[in-house]
Amino acid sequence: xxxxxxxxxxxxxxxxxxxxxxxxxxxxxxxxxxxxxxxxxxxxxxxxxxxxxxxxxxxxxxxxxxxxxxxxxxxxxxxxxxxxxxxxxxxxxxxxxxxxxxxxxxxxxxxxxxxxxxxxxxxxxxxxxxxxxxxxxxxxxxxxxxxxxxxxxxxxxxxxxxxxxxxxxxxxxxxxxxxxxxxxxxxxxxxxxxxxxxxxxxxxxxxxxxxxxxxxxxxxxxxxxxxxxxxxxxx
Length: 235
Known about the structure:
- The chain is α/β, with parallel strands linked by helices.
- The protein has helices at residues 41-49, 71-76, 94-101, 115-121, 123-127, 138-150, 168-183, 195-201, 219-224, 226-231, and strands at residues 3-12, 15-25, 30-34, 56-61, 64-65, 79-82, 156-160, 187-191, 204-209, 212-218.
- The protein has a single domain, classed as P-loop containing nucleotide triphosphate hydrolases (Rossmann fold).
- Helix content is 35%, strand content 26%.
- The protein is globular.
- The two termini are 33 Å apart.
- The mean pLDDT is 92.
């Protein structure tokens, strides 16, 4: 396993948000974490990324424990996190946002090498390099947030609700890009409300309910589960 989360419990604003959660993500997998609002999905990703500190349990990445180190060092080890609210620099240009994404590699002569992949994934970003991030559409801002994370040269990319606030016609582009990202050798862990689309591109899935894992398995098995079909897929 590239990522191993073992029995972590995390409190958010004094309340336990996830309890005794364990998940694993293998190299070059796409893994989905599903659940209703308030199930603890975002808290799980923040706990892995070092944005929230777990009260107990362990997180290992590449075999090394990371739950006891700062978030920027987790990123430096190859784990990139795209939060739900994107957290772009709105007054800066698309080019400057991408440049900041490669800051960890600022001393490298090939600092901008990931741009080739980024522009293949999101060609419209190349067309908007001089635009301020604030002027982009919601879908384009999400593309930029993902692209900026890819500039860190991650081994694992974590996406928190990448389809939120995006026009339906751009949602398919985002999910198609996730598949292509995996084809470049980057592993993906995704939290998403649009479970049907996620399960179509995922290898495995976990379902969270009130902060606990209540179901896990292959994407096909989770999709075929009657409870999942009724609760999340409207079938």
